[in-house]
Amino acid sequence: MALKEFRPLTPSLRFTQLHDFSELTPNSAPERSLMEIKRRTGGRNATAGRLRVIGWWPQETVSYH
Fold first, then answer.
1. From CA 50, how far away is CA 19, in angstroms rounded?
2. pTM for this predicted structure
């Protein structure tokens, strides 16, 4: 496995060497068969379509007269 060396931008990076995992992950895109679709509802439920997220609406502002 190849080693990744860092430029000495900070004292801690001066002698840092980490493993390069480029051999294990040849493609940058994830495997499509392992992914699932993230469905978004916008906080609305399935029956009435009303917002059901607690604390979504802006709070009342306190005015000091």
1. 50
2. 0.36
